[in-house]
Amino acid sequence: MAITTSDFQSLDTVNATSRSDDPKFIIHRMILSDEFSQTPAEHAIMAWLVSLPSELDPAHAAKRLVNKYADDEACFRDDAVKTLNLLRQTAEFPYARLSLCRSNHRKRRRYNA
């Protein structure tokens, strides 16, 4: 079976924000395609994280992707639901929150030293 450009027509209609949130459509394919049903959700999340542009906060991208797919969650496969849950966990830790945790950790270490 040959792949044609019409196979990617739906991907072309995705706006620029969605493209930057999921540049290689890893999450999109994991959630909506049966071809990735054997792929562990953890692997998909790791591949997605590595594919993101360095200037994009993964937490913000994850939040937008969760909002995009959450309405249809009831009809998703178990691995797609797990992928969404991992995205929700990722969304809880934006750069600002992570830097706060790191700076608090450093302060504590100085006092305990």
Summarize this, please?
This protein has helices at residues 9-12, 16-21, 26-32, 41-51, 58-69, 78-91, 95-112. With 113 residues, the chain is an all-alpha fold.
Based on DSSP secondary structure assignment, what is the total number of beta strands?
0
**Radius of gyration from the CA trace?**
17 Å
Which stretches are poorly predicted, pLDDT < 50 over at least 5 residues?
Answer: 1-14
How many strands, which pairing sense, and closed or not: the largest β-sheet?
none
The global form is globular
Helix count?
7
Assign the structural class, choosing from mainly alpha, mainly beta, alpha/beta, alpha+beta, or little secondary structure.
Answer: mainly alpha
The residue-averaged pLDDT reads 79
Amino- and carboxy-terminal Cα gap: 65 Å
* Element pattern in H and E: HHHHHHH
State the helicity in percent bands. Answer: 55-70%
β-sheet strand percentage: under 5%
- Tell me which oligomeric state these chains represent: single chain
Explain how this protein is built.
This protein is an all-alpha fold and about 110 residues long. The chain is about 65% helix and about 0% strand. It is built from seven helices and no strands. It has helices at about 10, 15-20, 25-30, 40-50, 60-70, 80-90, 95-110. The chain is globular and about 40 Å long. It starts with 8 loop residues before the first helix and ends with a helix.
